[in-house]
Amino acid sequence: xxxxxxxxxxxxxxxxxxxxxxxxxxxxxxxxxxxxxxxxxxxxxxxxxxxxxxxxxxxxxxxxxxxxxxxxxxxxxxxxxxxxxxxxxxxxxxxxxxxxxxxxxxxxxxxx
Amino acid sequence: xxxxxxxxxxxxxxxxxxxxxxxxxxxxxxxxxxxxxxxxxxxxxxxxxxxxxxxxxxxxxxxxxxxxxxxxxxxxxxxxxxxxxxxxxxxxxxxxxxxxxxxxxxxxxxxx
Lengths: 112, 112
Fold this sequence. Notes:
The structure holds 2 protein chains of 2 kinds.
Chain A: E1 4-5, E2 10-14, E3 19-25, E4 32-38, E5 45-51, E6 56-59, E7 62-67, E8 72-77, E9 86-93, E10 101-102, E11 106-111
Parallel strand pairs in A: 2-11
Antiparallel strand pairs in A: 1-3, 3-8, 4-5, 4-9, 6-7, 7-8, 9-10, 9-11
Chain B: E1 5-7, E2 10-13, E3 19-24, E4 31-37, E5 43-50, E6 53-57, E7 64-68, E8 74-78, E9 87-94, E10 102-103, E11 107-111
Parallel strand pairs in B: 2-11
Antiparallel strand pairs in B: 1-3, 3-8, 4-5, 4-9, 5-6, 7-8, 9-10, 9-11
């Protein structure tokens, strides 16, 4: 039972354009969501998060949007840079618990 | 650098063998988490320890066990290894039962 899904295994974007990564979840008990970025041979690195009481959180070039009714969140990167090329994981958690549930990841490639 | 260290980086062993993976959390973090990432999949939660005590359990096989020592480092023991156990094993730490977890670089286990 895949409670967090990232339906796009890969995304290719031109430098300077917007990258939009999507994530869907099924468990309505999730109330906190995170995006992690992973480079090869490294562990996931925290990027940005959002609580279920908000619908948007922004940090520099990165913005996460949450649509609770649709159980959908997205990560926008504007403008995209070649250094953003990595695998992006969406993760969710019930803050009453402690386990992160991850999506399968989306490989983002930003072309110069 | 997340501050979480894992050893070894790579491990190659044969079926039926037993291995131990080691993790040192960030300074001051009391919680340690173990995750498994198999090929092209998201990270799967295995187990959490908090200040030496098991706090939460995920889909951890009976052949696998973990512990957290008084100095807060943790070990994940994998026994009777099978080909399907080949994966990346990540350790993460957090200050408590925190959603924001910091990941180590992982141990790549190859079972031949």
